[in-house]
Amino acid sequence: MKLKSTCSRTILGRRISVASIAAVMAGIVITGAVSAASLNNIISEEQKKLEVAQASQVKVDQLSEDRRKLYNEFKAVNKEIEGLKIYNKQVSKQIVNQRAEMVRIRQTMEDVQVTQRQITPLMLRMIDGLKQFMALDVPFLVKERQSRIDLLEEIIDDTNVSVAEKFRLIINAYQREMEYGNTIESYSSSLVIDEVDRNVNILRFGRVAMVYQTPDGKYSGYWDPDAGETGKGDWVESNSGSDRSYISRGLKIANKQSAPDLVILPVKAPEAAQ
């Protein structure tokens, strides 16, 4: 009976040991399974974090690229603004100058209007002055000079002729009259001599002397500003042979048929002042 009990305890003890080993192995298997699941979870989480990090990096790169573009645009806009500031400054100066020029032009236009109102009476007085001067002057080229005055009187009332052109023609007429005093010329005309209308050659020495001679040399004479019935001047015949000779020589010089030379012409001496 004792032996049986011993054997039973031994078998029981073996069963307990086997059960313990099985329990331990079962625990290891369970622990391994749990560790594998945790590792998978960890890897999965890390993978998610990596994807999130990659997405974030993409956003950061995109933001960085956007910032770079904005910065470049900012610099370009700033450069354009600086250019516009310089341009606006220059344009402002030009505007100031243009306004000053407008004021000057406006003042000039007002002055021109005043001048135009004043210049017309001046031109009329200048034409009257020419007429009076010609009436008191030596009577040479009467038709030509009178035609010039008639033209001036005609255009002065012509609205199609500008004020500047009218003034130019009047000044030209005055210049032409001034030139007569410094020139020598001869021309053909007709005079009443001995109650006969005769063709003569007239010689003018500036405004100092004016003489005449018929083509055949028979009649010669000079202009006397104090002769005539009215005392306003007339042609006076000269019977001096020397006068005829000098007048003939003077005509040749004026017509470039002879070299310039000293010529003595009949000129009435001025009266002494009283």
Notes on the protein architecture:
This protein has 274 residues and is of the alpha+beta class. Among the domains are: 107 residues, no CATH class; 71 residues, no CATH class. 66% of the residues lie in helices and 12% in strands. Helix 1 packs across helix 3 and helix 2 runs antiparallel to helix 3.
Annotation keywords:
rod-shaped, about 270 residues, 4 helices, alpha+beta
How many helix segments?
4
- What string, H for helix and E for strand, traces the elements in order? HHHEEEEEH
| First-last Cα distance | 206 Å
Share of helical residues:
55-70%
Rg of Cα set: 64 Å
Give the gist of this structure:
This protein has 274 residues and is α+β, with helices and mostly antiparallel strands. 66% of the residues lie in helices and 12% in strands. 8% of the residues are buried.
Question: What is the element layout, followed by pairings?
Answer:
Blueprint: H1 2-136, H2 142-155, H3 163-180, E1 184-193, E2 196-205, E3 209-213, E4 220-224, E5 234-237, H4 241-254
Antiparallel strand pairs: 1-2, 2-3, 3-4, 4-5
